[in-house]
Amino acid sequence: MKIYTNLLEQDFEAEKPDEKYVGDITYVWTDKGWLYLAGVEDLFNRELIGWKISDRITVDITLSTMDMAIGRRAPKEGLIFHSDRGSQYASNAYRELLKKYGIRQSMSRKGNCYDNACAESFFSTLKKDVIYGIRFKTKKETRKVIINYIEGFYNSRRLHSSLGYKLPREYINDYYKNEKKVA
Question: What is the average pLDDT across 133-153?
């Protein structure tokens, strides 16, 4: 497996949408066993633009997550995607997917979670807001809670201090309105 240079170097600011994405995978326990959530976040507006919940932690979870992000945004070539050094992100299949879309791959330094702090922060927030303190009886129930949190709250109703206390979708909409005024 190939390990890539850290292109992000803890620079978590993006000047425009689809310039820098970060991704990671987290684990969620249920009474029926583990679920795995992979996510792709656009650093411009902190929106989770791709995500997948799976019973298995294989490369397929990361491929599906990036496919969703690309389908929602259609980024231009040159985008940086940053992750940890997990086998799913270092796999040939994942590298080929990024190459197909002209996405530059970046990886954290060995053992340095701060290099992917924004992705880690999303999962920490998710767990504090809806996972900790709840005993999930079924995987179906858990999936529903996570999906409702991502789409019904985090992306659409949660204010972000890094965005001047704006909503992710509000922040990106403001950007595009300003772009039209300039053009």
Answer: 97
Domain ranges within the chain, ordered by starting residue: 20-182
| CATH class of the structural domain 20-182 | alpha beta
The pTM score is 0.93
Among 21, 25, 77, 65, which Cα is nearest to 44's?
Answer: 21
Which has the closest alpha carbon to 40: 56, 28, 24? Answer: 24
Q: Kindly give the residue spans of alpha helices, DSSP state H, lying in 127-162.
A: 139-149
Tokens of 105: 């791959």
- According to DSSP, residue 150 is labeled I
Model confidence over 54-97: pLDDT tens digits? 999 999 999 999 999 999 999 999 999 999 999 999 999 999 99
**What are the angstrom distances between the C-alpha of 128 and each of 124, 125, 155?**
6, 5, 16
Please name which of 142, 124, 145 lies closest in space to residue 33, comparing C-alpha atoms: 142
Name which of 10-19, 58-67, 110-119, 137-146 the model is least confident about: 110-119
Tokens of 180: 């039209």
Cβ partners under 8 Å of residue 159, min gap 6:
165, 166, 167
Largest CA distance in the chain: 54
Secondary structure class of 100 (helix, strand, coil)? helix
